Amino acid sequence: MPLRPRSDAASPRKKSPDGMDLGTRALVLGAGSLALSWVPLLNIIAFLAAMMAVAFGLLARWPTGWLTREEPNTRRALWGVVLGGLAIVVFVVTAVRYSAL
């Protein structure tokens, strides 16, 4: 009996050598958004980056892994969600503070 080739869905996920996984992207966006969320006009861009960090982090931690073929770094994804959430809080506090001036 000849062996049939395995489908793409049955093959294990591998790390992609040419790009970042979603967990690393979430961490980079979360750290960058937290750093920029203190600056008055750049905090709007930082807010969008924080939203992306939270979204990428949650997608990377999704248990089925339907979005990507490579194995995401879930620890970095968790830190990306945490830093993105902190950046959102800082954005809200600074936006209220700057609007009161």
UniProtKB/TrEMBL annotation:
Keywords: Membrane, Transmembrane, Transmembrane helix. The keyword Membrane applies. The chain crosses the membrane at residues 44-64, 76-98. Residues 1-21 are annotated as: Disordered. This is DUF4190 domain-containing protein.
